[in-house]
Amino acid sequence: MKYLKELFKQGKLNYKKIPLLDSLSEEEFLRIRSDFYVIEYNKGETIFRSFDPADKMYIILDGEMKISKIMSDGKEQILYIYEPGDFVGGHNILSGDRYEYTAYALNKTTVLTISSYDVNNVLKHNIKFITKVLEQSYERIRKAEDLIDRLSVISTDVRVAKLLRTLVNLYGHGTDKGILIKYNVTQEELGSLAGVSRETMSRKLNQFEEEGILKLISRGKILIKDYEKIENILI
């Protein structure tokens, strides 16, 4: 919410506070400003669906967006979770693809949309903008590779340990008691990210807590007390 307030001080959008748009000139911004839409979604609401045309980009201003896909066994597989400042759709627009996944609001989420027309006719001529889209595409590929790596492992201990390592890298903050991970997903969604059931995820987290690896503080908070043990599981 603090990020959102900084963006709209005095009721005017400060686009320089948005990482994807901060390289735009005043002229470029004025050319696309009339097509900006700020949309609020409630928790669980669908933002776009698989096979929808990629006719706009979404920049997350507040809240979190879950990107998932229904697999052949009918189960939901979470692919990515995006936070304020992240964006979705740039690669799809530039490549002319439809969305291959569905996006949901993990909580009350505010997004800024930019039309595909503006991306193709204004923004793609800005080298820094294109570079950021390509960097995000690379990061998305890297996260997909991490997911494939987790799902290809048979051992549930290793799957959960790999996920914890990823969460440490993405959301971990060092404290005097260990590494604190703050996230906003349920254990069922954590299980999806690790490729295990909610029950298995809950059981493994409790097991790791008994072994002194971590401490379950509250919903959305895990304290990693012994990161070396996580690395040892992955050897």
TrEMBL record:
One of its GO terms (molecular function) is DNA binding. Residues 157-228 form the HTH crp-type domain. It holds the Pfam family cNMP_binding. One of its GO terms (cellular component) is cytosol. Residues 20-140 form the Cyclic nucleotide-binding domain. It comes from the Bacteria. Keywords: DNA-binding, Transcription, Transcription regulation. The keyword Amino-acid biosynthesis does not apply. This is Crp/Fnr family transcriptional regulator. It comes from Helcococcus ovis.
